[in-house]
Design a protein that fits this description.
Elements (H helix, E strand, L loop, with lengths): L1 H19 L6 E5 L6 E6 L10 H9 L3 E6 L7 H18 L4 E7 L1 H12 L5 E7 L7 H6 L5 H4 L1 H5 L8 H5 L6 E6 L5 H4 L12 H4 L6 E5 L10 H13 L9 E2 L2
Parallel strand pairs: 2-3, 2-4, 4-5, 5-6, 6-7, 7-8
Antiparallel strand pairs: 1-3
Helix pairs in contact: 3-4
């Protein structure tokens, strides 16, 4: 058991090292379209950067959307501190570009930031939202590792808020009140982390934990948490939901490329 813990901790510390090299304050990457009436804000997850969302941003640009890809320091504080900075920067950029409707595509923690900010300060021009691998009911990995030595290096204050207990931020937020499509994964590149999660899972979040009351559509794909942001099946279903409010895969079960 100790050896497994060390392997998992090692992988998480590597992720933290990447985070240490990331941006120290929020910044944005705006790409305008022929018509900027509809703009999409992209929010990456914990210990990631806007690079993770660039394939999605490019796919949405090809579909005619203006995009604002947000780079924010995901360990710079609590959800209450990070959410208004990251979300409002995206909203400001889209509005300045002339957007009348602002959609969001989020990965992991990014979805919780949007849920928190919209509940705290409702977004009047919010359009449709697609969440990729969101811990909408918290993450069981946080429950298991919160007390491990070194947790703060890869989880920070925000990670400690993502447990599945009733005091976890995701659980406290309740149902969503906007058009939402959720895409969950079942692949993994970390079998040790997956061993701490209920099956099926994507290596970071269980499929069951991605669901939230009020969502409009749900799709399970065979991608890992890390790579779900760049999968072609995910790209085309995200485009479809933002356009029409529904995913295009017929069975809405597990789709593997």
């Amino acid at each position: 058991m100790n050896s497994i813990r060390l392997l998992i901790l090692g992988a998480l510390l590597i992720a933290a090292a990447f985070q240490a090299a990331c941006v120290n304050q929020a910044r944005s990457e705006l790409v305008v379209a022929t018509s900027n009436d509809e703009c999409v804000v992209l929010l990456h997850g914990l210990n990631r950067s806007w690079r993770a969302m660039r394939p999605m941003a490019e796919a949405l640009q090809d579909a005619g959307f203006a995009t604002v890809n947000i780079d924010y320091p995901s360990q710079s504080g609590t959800i209450e501190e990070i959410a208004p900075v990251a979300v409002n920067l995206g909203l400001e950029e889209c509005r300045q570009a002339g957007a009348k409707t602002i959609h969001f595509v989020t990965h992991s923690l990014g979805g919780i930031l949007l849920r928190y900010q919209n509940k705290t300060d409702p977004i009047p021009d919010l359009g449709r939202v697609v969440m990729l691998g969101p811990p909408n009911q918290g993450s069981e990995i946080i429950d298991r590792t919160r007390d491990w030595p070194g947790f703060e290096m890869f989880g920070g204050d925000v990670g400690a808020q993502l447990g599945t207990n009733p005091e976890g931020m995701a659980v406290k937020l309740g149902p969503v009140d906007f058009e939402l499509g959720v895409i969950a994964g079942t692949g993994t590149i970390n079998p040790f982390a997956s061993a701490m999660l209920p099956n099926p899972d994507d290596g970071k979040v269980s499929v069951a934990s991605t669901r939230v009351d009020g969502m409009d559509d749900f799709l399970v794909v065979g991608n890992s948490h890390h790579y779900i942001t760049r999968s072609e099946i995910v790209l085309r279903n995200t485009r479809a939901f933002l356009r029409d409010g529904a995913f295009i895969e017929a069975d809405k079960q597990e789709v593997i490329e």
